Amino acid sequence: MVGELRYREFRVPLGPGLHAYPDELIRQRLGHNGHPEYQIRWLVLRRGEDGEGGSSQVDCKAEHILLWMSSDEIYANCHKMLGEDGQVIWPSQETAGEAGALDKSVLEEMETDVKSLIQRALRQLAECVGTIPPAPLLHTVHVLSAYASIEPLAGVFKDPRLLDLLMHMLSSPDYQIRWSAGRMIQALASHDAGTRTQILLSLSQQEAIEKHLDFDSRCALLALFAQATLSEHPMSFEGIQLPQVPGRLLFSLVKRYLHVTSLLDQLNDSAAGPGAQNSSAPEELSRERGRLELEFSMAMGTLISELVQAMRWDWASSRQGPLARSSCSIFQPQLADAGPGLPPTQAQSSLRRSRRFRPRSEFASGNTYALYVRDTLQPGMRVRMLDNYEEISAGDEGKFQQSNSGVPPVQVLWESTGRTYWVHWHMLEILGFEEDIEDMVEADEYRGAVGSGAQGVALPSWRWKPMAELYAVPYVLPEDEDAEESEHLTQAEWWELLFFIKKLDGPDHQEVLQILQENLDGEVLDDEILAELAVPVELAQDLLLALPERLDDSALRDLLSCRVYRKYAPEALAGQPAYPSLLEAQPQPQQSADAAGVGEEPRTQCPRSPLRHLVEGYGPAGKIVLDLEQALSSEGTQESEVKSLLLLLRQQPQPFLVLMQSLDTPAANRALHLAVLRILMRLADFPEALLLPWHEAMDACMACLRSPDADREVLQELIFFLHRLASASRDYAVVLNQLGARDAVSKALEKHLGKLDLAQELRDMVFKCEKHAHLYRKLTTNILGGCIQMVLGQIEDHRRTHRPINIPFFDVFLRYLCQGSSVEVKEDKCWEKVEVSSNPHRASKLTDRNPKTYWESNGSTGSHSITVHMRQGVLIRQLTLLVAGEDSSYMPARVVVLGGDSASSLNTELNSVNVMPSARRVVLLENLNRFWPVIQIRIKRCQQGGIDTRIRGLEVLGPKPTFWPVFREQLCRHTRLFYMVRAQAWSQDIAEDRKHLLHLSSRLNGALRQEQNFADRFLPDDEAARALGKTCWEALVSPLVQNITCPDEDGVSPLGWLLDQYLQSREAARNPQSRAAAFSSRVRRLTHLLVHVEPCEVPAAAGAAPRPNGRNRSHDWGSLATPGLPSSIVKNLTRCWQAAVEEQVNSFLTSRWRDDDFVPRYCEQFNNLQKSSSELFGPRAAFLLALQNGCAGALLKLPFLKAAHVSEQFARHIDQRIQGSRIGGARGMEMLAHLQRCLETVLIFSGLEIATTFEHYYQHYMADRLLSLGCSWLEGAVLEQIGSCFPHRLPQQMLRTLSTSEELQRQFHVYQLQRLDQELLKLEDTEKKIQEASGKEHAGAHEEEAEEAGAAAAAEVTEEEEEENEDLYYEGAMPEVSVLVLSPRCWPIASICHTLNPRTCLPSYLRGTLNRYSNFYNKSQSYPVLEQGPPRRLQWTWRGRAEVQFGDQTLHVSTVQMWLLLCLNDLKAVSVENLRALSGLPADTLNQEVGLLTSSRGPLDLHEQKDVPGGVLKIRDDSEEPRPRRGNVWLIPPQTYLEAEDEEGRNLEKRRNLLNCLIVRILKAHGDEGLHIGQLVYLVLEAWQKGPCPPRALVSGLGRGSACSSTDVLSCILHLLGKGTVRRRDDRPQMLSYAVPVTLMEPHTESLNPGSSGPNPPLTFHTLQIRSRGVPYASCTVTQSFSTFR
Fold it and tell me: Measured between alpha carbons, how far is residue 434 from residues 353, 376, 379, 418 in Å?
């Protein structure tokens, strides 16, 4: 059947390629909040099934989900289902064609005929005598069946007498009458599903219907039920082995299921709408609904109980682990170092230590400890891992297997992975054998806790959480418990206990009610009062003591597994089951049975001794089996005694099951097998025995039948018994068919050559039940699927109404559905055998778990394969190949994985993987949803063209074949649909009114807290809980975040608006009583809730090795990239926060950029934004980065001159704070604090265009600071922090030149000493020559010659040497002179443009030092150690500083001031005009220097004279003014700050615009292909330096801005990228091309003068002609032009 997909445009994604579409309205009810709710059916279709190709036809049997929705949710998700009045449109009721074809009178006549036929059939059936039905009765029923097939007459057949007729016909012994009843039921049920359900429900609710139905009648009803539910719950359990459920139990489950669905429909119809509310009083409606809820809960509990027993889930109750998981967030990813969240095994392992083995801490080195472990460790000892190593984590325990000489050398079987892994000696701690291990409790911590408790300080309970947890996990805050409620059972707990009270019959029920009445003041208890009782805990414990002895075996098992018993039962009762479990007590009887069969004791002469050994240890329950054997083996079978014993076995079937399970023991127990089979043969003759659970132990019979060592006599008795049982009840023939008895019997016949009596008949009987076996399997699937859908419906109601789930065993059912969710099948438990294409003798190396061994193929290229035969029903979770890079050409390069049903049908390609040369583990398959019997791995190609291949290992992981994958899929689908519909409705509310965003926090809190509580209460393990948490977060939070961060038509998103309001109200929120504080609190709770699943960044441990793929690899959603939030949520939230920050900063810059205190205010603004980021999102790097990007975005929007002004203000502020920090004391520390805040803000300049201008101004101020005040440690510290803000790195180079100058100064000192030594050595030589000459003959003549020789020697000294040596014999104290060699490449030219002539301006003793330094520097150019490059020439400047002693004062002056003061040493007065002419300095510079010297602190006076322009300088007379105080006097000129609006700032703008034009010009010339960024920079620099652009006049007009570097070009490229003028290629980001023609310059420039009024002066442009000839970037000879801003 096909239908139309009416609402194709409204779809909700449920998974990859899976969508849900709204289909139609089913029913309406009144919700818990008084508003109407509508049940909508959603179709679940995969891609290709939803008619995307143009067809709107879909399969009506497609999977669907029924979802209750409010009007708002329908409007937000499918508004076409609403009419113009806003009401939901009901589907049109189409009348059937037959109704329109039949006349009303004819229809009335036919209805009269049907009623008379029903009356006649009842009378004929009552008159029927004998086994052969009369022909008139059959004709009457045939006519009724014909009438039943007419749909307009369906209402007449709802007559109660028809149900009586069908009941009598179904219970008739005649087959033809039963067949006719089935035909009539099929005719009635052929109209619609509602009619089928009504007929089934009516028939199933008849009292004792099972007693009147035989096998065929029951199968007819079951087939009808299977047909009715086939399309309701199309759920597949492929790969899961369902148990064999007999028809009697299936029919009982059908009855329970129909009863539950009927009550559920009544519950939904009880609140059908406002019309129903007016018909009865609200109190009556409330009581009626309460009664229905209690009845539904009890019926649902009964259905779950019987289903658990039918599925045999209760057998595994003794093998279960902990029933409750640790309480932790289901939305946050599980961290490895979670502490309290560690698995119990890891938490307990830390409390175990060895009694006699030494720990690693007692050894001096790791090598010594490794030798100790190697010498001490023995196979079988237990060890603990001390370090993390690849797949093994610290704290894991295992058993030592062996060691060898490999690396690593130790093989340990690890409990955490279930397999062996090789590690190193020093990584292990020896625990020893089990007798060497003891549990350890930290005594110090225990004593501390006891001591603190003794002092009256209450220890924190598990419910206590620190204040920080409000933001960490905001929805799991425990609500304050009511003291009165804590003393009473909750309604869910009481209803679970009431379920067992209602199970009691007769006097037992009255006794329990009497206990209740005695404790409740004798109040009369009816069903209504029982449902609303508030039961104290003490009374509940009394009831739990009284119930076990009054319940039967089945109900007692349910009681022991329920939550209320585990929580409130007394410890003495809770630890003692009423009978020994089969699984616990079975091994002992098996051992005794073995002894009975093999050993020979005197007591074995008794024929009952094997049975006695079997039931030993079962106490009174085992005695029932012995009594039954005695009663059956007596000469006259005592039927009454046998029936009483059968009644006991029905109440406690464990001994009976033990009896049947004994057939699954070794064939040596022949005597036991024969004794058991004889008992079972006699039991099959009693009708009461057919009610025993034969089907639960039929596996043992099949095991005995298939046993190759089975004795022929035992086999013959077994076939007799099975034939007798199948003949007595065909249900068990169906069970045998499901277990494969047909093939087993055929093999037994072949083995014994057909000499087995009744074997052929048994095989034929089983074969005839093939159709019924298929029906039973389909029914089991439908019932289980229907129960799962009802459970999911209850979970949805729990989400919608926020009411607790009061269904008994609800947690039990979910626990069994989720069982095995975190259990993996490992290695050889997944596969049966592994085959290889060649060298099969080495195939075992693939599974020996040793990475040092390998399987090597032998064949041609592409012919190598590994075939894995999987165990039945195992779905592969992960298939991994282990390879090694050192195998070189033997290492696989391409692997293809195929799947098939057999080795000859490998036709489906599952995956193909390219292996990297560096890979070690190659994951081939993950999370398959289908079972493949055979998997083949083909190595198609090897690395480097190799022929053969080497595989180091094969790992196969697979989940147990449980219901968890199926239930997870259904749970996640329903959860996703519910929350995506709700998220869309909430988003619609927020879109209509942004103020609703304030309520989103409480809404999300309620939803997440509800899911958290549900997971803590009902889901058993972490994987199930986290699957639910992941689905909730992705379906609810992710769409909400996407919607509230999406900008509207105004460009503002709702969350952006909320964040902007938060930032604006931050000051007002400081008052905790204000509305702003409440508003800010809601915003903070919302933002922390949206980001709380992302863990804060934790720095990685130093030296930690990277973790490869292994067992500790996260399976959470955050592990797709990095642990944390999905990337879409982080991206949307950070983008929204960045936009809000950018708006705030942009507003501040627009209004405050002219202020004098702009920088402090900006730093304060940035600090407030940082605090707000921490308040809203916590210490998360993503949002701090968004904050910086927002500030950077606001700075990029500034025009160039405004940005230059801002950068100058920051450079000025830093200069002032650095100079102010030299003061010291409290003021200096305050300056340092201000400096630190400013530097944190300046870091945003890094990578921006503003960094270029900031470096320009910082370089100027730093140069003046260094030359005036000298270098300090603070300069280097500042550059280390903000060094990334200087694209040219000029300040760093300035500091390096100072370091080079210091090194040169040290070498110059050594050079001076050498020259002094040389001069002294020459003088000594001259004196020695003179003395030698005076001692000779002809003294006079010789003296004259000596004088001539000395004069000649003196004449050899050049004029330069005279100047260099003129201060060598200076008699006064020589001043200390330090020379700073400043490179013009990094130091600003303005700082060194005024040159100094030492010959005219400096005294001789200083001039000689400078000359010697010049000679030294010139000579040092030949040494490559100092500096590389061409020789440089020194040019002396006036920049520098000096200390001049003036009396008792030390004057700190500049070089110019020093020169002025030294001139007055020789002159009493000197005119300023002469000084200007002599120095060549500008007048303003010289006047500034003179002004400081003539100030009140200076030593000079300026006397004005008419004939002397500028005045005359004289030393101040001490007699006229009091002598200044002693100490240091600072007369150095203060810092001179630049202005961004001066000519230099405009030149920087011109240079930027010129470079932009060049970049665009070059990119246009290269078209769409573009240029590599490196090549573009080269072409721009070449054009700037060599080409005709810019013209000489413009370059010379740029002044300082005429210089250009690659950093300047890159800065302009970034600017153009931000403007959109230049674009990058997506596939090659390094390639740039021209995008769109936009204006490169700002359309206007705001006046930088705050005092200016009126419009700005008009801007002028001029055109530059650029000719192509000789220009490297041009591609043609056409003359082109461009405009530039002046």
Answer: 11, 16, 13, 19
Taking the CA atoms of residue 1161, residue 1163, residue 1165 and residue 1166 in that order, the dihedral angle to the nearest 10 degrees is 170
Distance, CA of 566 to CA of 444 (rounded, Å): 33
First to last CA, the chain: 79
Query: With contact defined as beta carbons under 8 Å apart, do 381 and 431 qualify?
Result: yes
For 3-27, write each residue's pLDDT tens digit: 556 666 678 888 877 888 888 888 8
pTM for the complete prediction? 0.70
Bridging pattern class, strands 428-432 and 437-439: unpaired
For residue 1035, what is the DSSP state? I
733-750 core/surface letters (b: 16 or more CB in 10 A; e: else): bbbbbbbebbebbeebbe
Per the structure block, which two tokens stand in for 160? 């109660």
> Strand, helix or coil at 1217?
helix
Contact 381, 429 (CB under 8 A): no
The pLDDT assigned to 1102 comes to 34
The average pLDDT across 1643-1649 equals: 38
The neighbouring-strand residues paired with 880 are 923, 955
How far is residue 153's CA from residue 188's CA, in Å, rounded to a whole number? 9
Task: Report pLDDT for 2.
Answer: 46
Q: How far apart are CA 289 and CA 1084, in angstroms?
A: 42
Q: Quick one: tokens of 368?
A: 């010594």
How sure is the predictor about 1120, in pLDDT bands with cuts at 50, 70 and 90? very low
The SS3 assignment for 352 reads strand
134 neighbors 124 (Cβ within 8 angstroms): yes
CB atoms closer than 10 angstroms to residue 1346: 18
pLDDT value, residue 229 = 62
Q: Give residue for tokens 């400890």.
A: 369
Q: What percent of the chain has pLDDT over 70?
A: 73
CA dist., res. 1504 & res. 891, Å (int): 97
Residue 437 and residue 382 in contact, taking contact as beta carbons nearer than 8 Å: yes
What's the CA gap between 185 and 858, in Å, rounded?
68
Cis peptide bond N-terminal to 1590, omega within 30: yes
Strand, helix or coil for residue 1593: helix
Find residue 1685's DSSP bridge partners.
1661
Reading the block at residue 1327, the tokens are: 């004196």
| The 419-423 sheet, strands edge to edge | 419-423, 410-414, 397-403, 382-385, 428-432
1303-1318 burial code (b ≥16 CB/10 A, e <16): ebeebbeebeeebeee
Number of other CB atoms surrounding residue 1532 within 10 Å: 17
Give CA separation, 513 vs 503, 519, 919, in Å. 12, 10, 71
Quick one: how far is CA 227 from the chain centroid?
A: 44
- Among 1033, 1000, 997, 1001, smallest CA distance to 1015 is for 1033
Closest CA relative to residue 305, chosen from 530, 524, 85, 502: 502
CA angle 1405, 1408, 1414 (to 5 degrees): 145
Q: Residue 800 in contact with residue 943, Cβ under 8 Å?
A: no
Task: Please determine, for residue 1192, whether its predicted confidence score (pLDDT) is greater than 60.
Answer: yes
CA angle 1388, 1390, 1394 (to 5 degrees): 125
